[in-house]
Design a protein that fits this description.
By secondary structure, the protein is mainly alpha-helical. The protein has one domain (2-79). Helices cover 51% and strands 0% of the residues. It contains four helices and no strands. The protein has helices at 2-7, 18-28, 33-39, 60-79. Helix 2 (18-28) packs antiparallel against helix 3 and helix 3 packs antiparallel against helix 4 (60-79).
Length: 87
């Protein structure tokens, strides 16, 4: 999401909040909403499991589902980048 915003010269604050970043992406490209909506709940993965502690590790099934959502968002954002910016 940050790459998409940067490619469109949009400034965003330093954050891992996918809801906030998703809204900013949607403001540029409203067709992203169906892909971005499920990703809003992934914000917790930016920090929850980074350090050892009391957090319950997600099951393999949940991890695969979350990865699928992340890939869908990535693919949707990538497909909407200008050709000169795509990897």
């Amino acid at each position: 999401m940050k790459g998409f915003l940067t490619a469109h010269s949009r400034v965003y604050r330093k954050t891992h909040d996918l809801d906030e970043l998703g809204r900013a992406c949607e403001s540029l490209e409203p067709t992203l909403t169906p892909m971005v909506d499920p990703a809003r709940d992934l914000t917790v993965f930016a920090w929850e499991f980074r350090y050892p502690g009391e957090s319950e590790v997600p099951s393999e099934k949940e991890a695969r589902q979350v990865l699928g959502v992340a890939r869908s968002v990535y693919d949707a954002l990538l497909s909407r980048l200008p050709g000169t910016v795509r990897p």
